[in-house]
Structures
1.
Amino acid sequence: MQLSALGSLRNKLALVFFGIVAAAFAVLYFFVVPQLESNLQQRKLDELRLVAGNSRSTLESLTNRRDVTAAELNARVRSIADAAGVRLTLLGVQQSESSDDPRAGETPFYVVSDSRNELQVPRNDSVAARAAVSREPVPGRGTFGGEQLVELAQPISYRGRIARVALYSQSLDDASQTVSFVRDRLLAAAGASLLLTLVGGYLVAQALSRRVRRLEQGAQEVAAGRFIEPLPVDSQDELGQLTRTFNEMQRQLLVVDRARKDFVATASHELRTPIFSLGGFVELLQDEDLDEETRREFLDTMAEQVERLQKLAVDLLDLSRLDAGSVALEREPVDLGELARAIAGEFRPAVARHETELELHLPSRIQALCDRERVAQIMRILLDNALRHTPEGTHVTVSAERQNGAAALTVADEGPGLPDVQQVFDRFYTGDATRGAGLGLAIARELAERMDGSIAATESAAGASFTLRLPTQLGGVQPERQASTGPAILRRASDPPVASQRQPAS
C-alpha cells in the first residue's frame, strides 16, 4: 500500500523538525525581542532616576538662591546634563493668585533653562503636572523632533511649595536601533535555520525511512517464506537494535523452517517404508501358490510393519501435541520405585522373548513431583530402547535414587553402547535404521523438560545408560554438583535398604 506524500514517515519527521524550529524562532521574535526592548527602555529610565536623585539637591539649592544669575543657572543645568549624558529642561511653575480665576488649580509651565539652549525644547506638561501635584518623580514617554524619548519629571521645591520641575529626557533611538538590529538578524537566522532544518530534517528522515523500509521489505520477504541475507546493523540506536532483533528472529525462523522440512521429509520416508513393504506383501499374498508356512511368515512380517506404523503414528501425534503446547501435565508426588516396578511388570513378555535378565534396584520410597502417566511413558521408552537395540540376553538394570536434591531413575544395559551420545535425542535419529523411527528419546526429552526435569545419556565400556532426573519440589532440578571424593550417588542415612530384584526370563 502506497503512502501519500504527507503521510510518509520521511515527510512527517521533516515537518516536525521544521515546526519545532519555527516555533522556537516565533517565541524569540514575539516574546524575547519585545522583552529586550522593554528592558532597554527600563534601563534608560533607571539611569534617569539615578541622575535625578543625584542632582535634586543641586537644583533645589539653585532655586532657593536669590542671587543666582541666568548664566550661572544655565551653566549648572548644562553641566548636570553633560555629565549624565541626558537632556535637562528646567520648567517653572506659574500658579494663579486668585481662586476666582478659571485657571485656578492649573499648573502651567514655562521654560527656565535648557541644557542645549535651544528655542525648541521637549515639553511634556502632563507628566510635569503629575509630578508637581504628587511631589514625586513621574516617568513618561514623549516625542521631540521625530525622536522617541523616555522622560522623568522631578519636582523642585521652594519654601514648601513646588516652584520648578526638572524634566530629564533621553532618546530611545539607540535602543530602537539595537532592537531593530536584533530583530533583523533574528529573521535572517530564522530563515537560514528553517531552510537548513527543512533540508537536514528531510535527509535525516529519509535515512530513517530508508532503514524502516528495509525492515518492512525484509519482513514481507520472510512472511512470504523467502529468507534473506541478514540486514546490516549500521547503528547502535533503537532501529539498530530492531534490526538485530529482526536478524535473530529470521535466524530462528530459518532453523524452525529447516527442522519442519526435515521433519516432514523424514516422517514421509518413515511412513513410506512400511507402507511399501505392506503393499509388497499384499501382492505376494495374492499369489495362490504360496504354501501355508510362507503365508504365515508374511503375515507375521506384515503385523510387525503394522505395529511399526501404529507406534510411528502415536509418536508423531505426541510430538505434534508437544510442539503445539497442548499436552496437559499434572504435578503430584509420585513414588518412582513403585511406578518402575509396575512398568517393569508390563515388559515381562518382551523380557522373556529377549531372554534378558532384568534387574531392579528400587528403594521403597523415592518420591518425585511429576506427572505419573508421562513418567510412565518415559520409562516405557527407555525400557523399549534397551530391549530393541541390544542383542538377546543382554543384562538390563533399572535403578532409582536421590541425586543432589532430585529423584533419579536410571535404565542401563550392557549392550554395544551408543553410536553418538550427542545425537541420540534428535528426532528421527537412530543408530540402526531398521529398528524404530528415532522419535522415542526425543519425546522423552520433551516430556522431561516440561516437568522441569532432564534426561541424559552416558556411554561406558559396559554399555549405555539413560538417567531421568525429576524435581522433588517446585523449582525444577538443580544442577549436579561434583563431589571431590566419594561416590556420585548420594543416599541419606534414613533411606531404607535398596531392594535388589531380578526379573525372571520366563
2.
Amino acid sequence: MFWEKLRRWLTGFLALAGLQLLEAANQPHLATVSINGQPYISVVGWSSLYNLSSRWEPKSSELRLTNRWTHLEFKADTRRVEVDDVSVNLSFPVLRVGDRLYLALRDEETVLRPLLKPPRLPAGRKITTIALSPGHGGKDPGHIEGSRTEKYYTLQLALEVQRLLQKNGFKVIMSRSDDAYVSLEERPAIARKRGADLYLCLHFNSAGGAEAPQGLETYCLTPSGASSTNDRGNNGGSARTGNRWDHENLQLAYQLHRAILSEIDFGDRGVRHSRFKELALAEMPAAYIEGGFMSNHEDAKRIFSESGRTRFAAAIVDGIMAFKRLVERGQPE
C-alpha cells in the first residue's frame, strides 16, 4: 500500500515536471523516470533497499546516506559519488528535481550495486595468480620528464609489487621483466595463457601547465551501456560492451584505490571507467592504476624514490589482498 501511494504521488509530481514514469524491471519497489533519454531512479527511494538513512543539504545540493556499514555522499549535477570517503566516478550526472536527487539506473547497476553487494567468486575458485603489466617498454618510453622515462619507473614498481606478492604466497606473471616492448594485445594474452586470476596495469601520468595536476586514478573497464569517465558526452561509447567481469572489475579498482589512499597522501582523482585496450582484452578481473603525475613535484617524489615505490607497492598488495578476501568470503581456507 505504501509503495503504491508513493508511486501515485511520484507519477503526479513528475508529470508536473514533464518527466515520464517507467517501471524498474529489476527493482519492484522502485520506479524510474526518463530524463534526457536515460532511466533514472530516486536516490532516497533506492537507499531504502540498503537501510540507509538520508540527510539532505538543500544549500549545497548534497545528499548523505549512512548505515552501520557504509556512508555515501551525492551532489547534484556531478558525476561523482563518495563511497566511504573514496571518490567514484559515475557515467551520468546525478540530477536534482525539486528537493530530490535522481541517479541513472545504469550507474546503480554497474557502480553502486557492485560496491554495496560485492560479487563472490564461484565456489572453489581462488585468487592465486596475479598478472602485472608495467606500462610501455622498449621503443615506447611513455611519459618523459627530463631524463626520466615512465617505462623505467613502471617496471621498478612492478618488480617491487612482484616481490611483495610472492612473499605473500602469490604466483606472479610479468608481461615484461626488462626494457622490452610488448604490444597491448600480447600483454593480456600472456596473462590468459598462463592462467592469471587478476590483471593489473601499472602506469604514471604526466601533464603540462603552470599548475601540474596531482593525484591517483584507478580505472576499470567501462561496462556496457555506460560512458567512460573521460568521454565528453554523457553517452559516448555507451553502445560498446563490457565483459563478464564488470562487477569484479569495479570492486577490484575500488579496493586498490581505497588501499592506496589509506596509506599514501595522494590526491583522490577517483575510481574511473575506461575502454583501454588492455582492460577490454583481459579475460579475468582487471584494473589499471595511474599512480600519480611525473610532472607534479609531490607525486614525483614518490615515483622517483625507491622508498616511495616500496610504500606504493605495499599499498597495491594490500588492495589485492582486500579484494581476495572479499570475493572469496565464505569459502574454506
3.
Amino acid sequence: MSTDERVYPIEVAGVRRELPLMQVKPGLRIAVLNILGDTELAQAAAAALAQKLDAVDYAVLVTAEAKSIPLICALAIAVEKPYVVLRKTHKPYMGDSLRAETLSITTGKPQTLYLDEKDRALISGKRIALIDDVISTGSTLQAMRLLMSKAGAEVSAEAAILTEGERSQWEHTYALGHLPLFTG
C-alpha cells in the first residue's frame, strides 16, 4: 500500500498507475482500475497479454462492455483476431440475442449480458478467449462462459489485466498482476 491510504500503486507491463480505493460495502474496499481513455496502459497490457496467449488455440476474443473495450480492441489488433463485445442492454438491431445474468462487484447490482445475433454467428463452433480488465468475484466471467456455451463456442482461455481477491481462485487465468482486497 502507498503512504496515501486512498490509492493503491500498481505496475502493469512497465506502466505505473495509482488506483483509487473504493468502498463496495462496509469494511471492504477495492482498488479500481479504469482503462477507459488510458491508451498507454491499454496498449501495454494488450501487448503483454498477447504474449501470454501466444500458445493458446483460439479464434475469437470476447469481453463484456464497457471498461475492457480499449483492452480488447488493442489485443485484437496485436493478435490479428476478431473480437466480440457482450452488451449490457439489448437493442432492437441485435436480433435474436442470447442473454445471461451477472452481479458485478463494482456496480453491486444484477446485470444482464447480451450476445448479438450477428456475433453469435461469428463465435458458434469456435474456440474463444474471454478477456476482462479485472476479474474479481468471477460473476461476469461466469455469465460470459454461460453465453459462450449457449452459443456453441468453447472457452479455451480466460485472461485479464488483473485478478483480485483470493489468488488461488485465478491460477488458471492469464493475468498481468493481482490486487488484494482491502478490509477493515
4.
Amino acid sequence: MLPRERVESALAFRTPDRIPLQIAPSPAGLYEHGQKLLDLARACGHDFGDVQQMKLPDPPPAADFDPDGRYHAIRTDAWGTTWEYRIFGIWGHPIGWPLNDLSALDGWKAPERPLTAGPGFEEARAAAARHQQKWYLIGEGGSLFEALRWVRRFEMILMDIEDDTPEINRIAEIINEYNMALARYALLLGCDAVAFGDDLGTQNALMVSPGAFRRFFKPRYKELFEPIQRAGQKVFFHSCGQVTEVLEDLRKVGVTALWPQLPLYNLRELARRCRDLGIAVQLHPDRGELMQRGSPGQVRDYVLRLLDTFDTAHGGSWLFIEVDPGFPWANIEALFSVAMEVRR
C-alpha cells in the first residue's frame, strides 16, 4: 500500500499492509535532542509526509533568554492574547486576555482568515496535490473551548458557559466562524482530513457538565464538522482529559478519529467503545510517567500492549510519536525501535 492508502484503511477499520505511523515534528524535542533525533525520525519514516523534509527548528533569539540563561519569552498573538513561554517549543501560559473586560468585545475580532484565491493559494493547493500522491494530508481546523480560554480567563469562561450569557455565545460564534474558515481552506486544498483540538476534560471528568456540553458545544461542533462530512472527508479530534461521557456525542457530530490522553482511560474499554462507535484512535504513548521516568523495556512493552489492546494490525488505530523535552534518549530510541519493528 501507499502510505496514504494505509492510513485510509486504518480509518475504515480495514486491515492495512502494516501498522500506520505518524511522527509529529515537535520543535521542543528537536531543539533539545538535535540532529540525532532528526536522523532517527528520518530512518523510521511515517505515513503522513516525507520525513526527509523535516528540519531542525531555528534556535530562539538571544532576547528570549533571561540574564541567567533561562528561556523566557513573551508574545502577543493574533487573538490579542499575551503568552509567557518558559520552554522553547512548548505551549505557553496566557498572562493577558483581551476579553476579561467584556466592554472590549465590540472592538475585538478574530485573526485574518486564510486566502482561498490567488497565487499563494494555488501554490499551496499544488503542494497538497503533490503530497497526496503518496502521503495522507491533514488540514488544520482550530479550537473552540481552548480559544475561549485564550481570550478570557478560564474561570470566567466556565461561569459564562454555565450562565449561558449573550456575550459568551457571541464570542463562541466569532471563534466558530473563524474555525469554519480554516476548515473551508483545508477542504479547498483537498486535504484528506481536518483536525481540531479542544481539551475538554480533567483527569477524571469533563470541565463542564455533559448537559452544558450538549447545549453549548455540541451544536457548534455539528455546524463546524458538517461541511467536512458532506465533502466526504474525515474529522480528527484531539482532547486531553476524560471525555468518555461524550464519546457518543462526538461521533454523532462527525468525529471519525480521536487523539485521547491514553493514561486516563481503561484502555481495553476505550478500545471497545471506539470500535463500537466507529471512531479510529490515534495512539500516543504516555508522554508523562512512561516516557519521562520509565525504562526502555517499559516503553517497548507498553507500545506492544497498546497495539494489541487496540488491535491496530487489523485497522481502527495508528501509532503516533511525539518527542518532548526531558525524554531520556534511551527511551526515545526504544520508542522508535519498537515502531520500526512492528512496521516490519
